[in-house]
Specification:
With 169 residues, the chain is α+β, with helices and mostly antiparallel strands. It has helices at 56-66, 68-71, 107-122, 139-151, and strands at residues 23-30, 75-82, 86-93, 132-136. It has one domain: Alpha-Beta Plaits. Helices cover 26% and strands 17% of the residues. Strand 2 (75-82) and strand 3 form a beta hairpin. Helix 1 (56-66) runs antiparallel to helix 3 (107-122). The radius of gyration is 17 Å and the shape is globular. The N and C termini lie far apart (46 Å).
Length: 169
C-alpha cells in the first residue's frame, strides 16, 4: 500500500502565545476561493464616494463585527474594513475587572463566533479556513495597521487579495 504524502500546513499562530491576553490583534479573514462577495456588483471605491456599498453578505459580516462586543464584553473592534473578498479588523482584548469571574476569550473564539454568525445569517459558509493574525506590539505598529485598514479600499486594485470582481453579487 502506498502512503499518500499530504502537504504540511504552515502554523498560523505563535507557538505558546496566549491569544486571550490583553492587547491588540490585526486580523484578516478571507472569503473561500477569493470570491468577491462582500461588495455590491459593479461597485468601485472612490474618494468622492467613500461609503462602501456592501452586498447582502457584506452587510451580514458588518453586523456580525458590530455585534462582537455584545458576545464578548472584554473585546472591542477598534477598526475594520470589509473588502470585496476579505475583512481586516483590529481586535482589542481588555483586562477583566478585578474580582470578576469573566474570562477573556481567545482571538480564535471571537473569529469562529464571527464566522459562525455570518454563516447562520446567510445560510452557508463563505469563509476560507482559518485566518491571518498579527499581534500588535506597540503604538507605532498599531498606528501603521490602523492607517492600512483606513486606506485599503483606495488600494484595492493593487491589494494582494485582488481578483477581478465578475463573481460579486
Amino acid at each position: 500500500m502506498t502512503k499518500i504524502q499530504l502537504p504540511v500546513r504552515k502554523q498560523n499562530r505563535i507557538k505558546d502565545f496566549d491569544y486571550s491576553s490583553v492587547g491588540a490583534y490585526f486580523i484578516t479573514m478571507c472569503v473561500k476561493d477569493k470570491k468577491c462577495l462582500l461588495w455590491k456588483r459593479g461597485y468601485k471605491y472612490t474618494e468622492v464616494t467613500p461609503d462602501i456599498e456592501l452586498s447582502a453578505y457584506g452587510k451580514a459580516a458588518d453586523q456580525a463585527i458590530k455585534d462582537i462586543p455584545t458576545h464578548y464584553p472584554l473585546v472591542s473592534v477598534d477598526k475594520h474594513v470589509i473588502m470585496p473578498n476579505h475583512i481586516h479588523l483590529i481586535l482589542s482584548i481588555q483586562w477583566a475587572p478585578s474580582g470578576s469571574a469573566m474570562r477573556s476569550p481567545t482571538v480564535s473564539n471571537v473569529i469562529n463566533q464571527l464566522k459562525g454568525s455570518v454563516t447562520k445569517r446567510i445560510g452557508f459558509s463563505l469563509w476560507q479556513r482559518s485566518f491571518h493574525d498579527h499581534v500588535i506590539r506597540n503604538t507605532d505598529d498599531y498606528e501603521k495597521i490602523y492607517s492600512y485598514i483606513d486606506t485599503n479600499p483606495m488600494k484595492w486594485d493593487i491589494d494582494c487579495f485582488y481578483v477581478m470582481r465578475e463573481e460579486a453579487t
